[in-house]
Amino acid sequence: MSVHTISDPLAHRRRRAALWFLLPACTMFGVYVIYPIFSSIWLSFYDWDGVGARTFVGLANYRELLDSETFYTALKNNLLWLFLFMLAPPLGLLFALYLNQSVRGIRLVKSLFFAPFVVSGVVIGLVFSWFYDPSFGLLKLMVGHGIPVLGDENMATFGIIAAALWPQIPFCMILFLTGLTSLNPEIIEAGRLEGAKGWQLLRHVVLPQLNSVSFMAVTLTVVGALRSFDLIAVMTGGGPFDSSTVLAYFMYDQAIKYFRFGYSAAIAVVLFLCMLVFIAYQLRRLLRSEK
Fold first, then answer.
1. What is the architecture of the domain spanning 73-259?
2. pLDDT above 90 as % of the chain
3. In this predicted structure, what is the pLDDT of residue 1?
4. 160, exposed or middle or buried, with CB in 10 Å at 0-12, 13-18, 19+?
């Protein structure tokens, strides 16, 4: 009885201390994540210009969204971003495997690979806009003639995605490099003793130890693809003729240019649901693989 009497107050104090330490983080998460989510969902049922009184319109914003051609163009472009952005994790892993070796000058090579990640999105957008310029761009010098990449409805989205992959691949590379440094050398050595080498060693020994890193790389890549905005704003402004717009830019366009905050909130809800579906799918795969 005396042991329980002493341990119970101690356990209670520990739980209370843990709650106090968690309180600031939970408060910040609630204020800056949970509240904006529910606020956007609530606002999507209203017609509001940001200044006057809100008018309840029910599902009218969503019905208008489903009748909009620009919405389907933005959704198609988001899926294209998502599909092509999935190249970043495997390429990042490939570069990480190359850089995870002790050879002379590897630090310089690492810094060169890492450089695009620390450059801001606006700078990357400007650099690639100059690169694609059909009058004086580097692309013209490389192929011998000007190609209006950002002025072509069929090429603009691909040009922006190529620019976005330039920093995204180093980001995934950094995640995998961090994971490679924490691998268990005993497991790798045991795999080699069993005769595993090359692809077999990578697939059956290395990659299973990188499950959590792979989950982070894929999840952040999905989020980055679905919330793409800055490069589109800098390079094309959603054009030509809304051909390169995505849901995030379409949402911004309706709120800032046309003061349709309720309609913009409906777009934000759709974008949030898209992210939720993909992240839940990846989280389920991670949990199943760990089991």
1. Orthogonal Bundle (1.10)
2. 44
3. 47
4. buried
Say how many CA atoms lie within 13 Å of 142 toward its Cβ.
8
148 CB-near residues (< 8 Å, 6+ apart): 134, 155
So where are the chain's domains?
Answer: 73-259
Q: What is the pLDDT of residues 110-136, one digit of tens each?
A: 788 788 878 888 899 999 999 999 988
The phi, psi pair for 260, rounded to 5°, reads: -110, 80
Average pLDDT on 46-53 reads 89
Whether pLDDT at 290 is above 80: no
Q: What are the structure tokens assigned to 98, written together? A: 């190359």
Q: Find out whether 124 and 224 touch, Cβ atoms under 8 Å.
A: no
Which strand (E) or helix (H) includes residue 234? helix 230-235
Collect all residues with Cβ–Cβ distance below 8 Å to 48 and sequence separation of at least 6.
54, 55, 261, 262
pTM above 0.90, yes or no: no
1-6 LR contacts (CB < 8 Å, sep 24+): none
Which of 218, 206, 223 minimizes the C-alpha distance to 271? 223
Task: Give the DSSP letter string of 20-66.
Answer: HHHHHHHHHHIIIIIHHHHHHHHHTTEE--SSS--EE-TTHHHHHHH
Q: Please, which pLDDT band fits residue 7 given cuts at 50, 70 and 90? A: low
Which element (helix H / strand E) includes 125?
A: helix 121-132
pLDDT of residue 5 exceeding 70, the answer is no
What's the confidence (pLDDT) of residue 189?
75
DSSP 197: -
- Lookup: tokens for 15: 């739980």
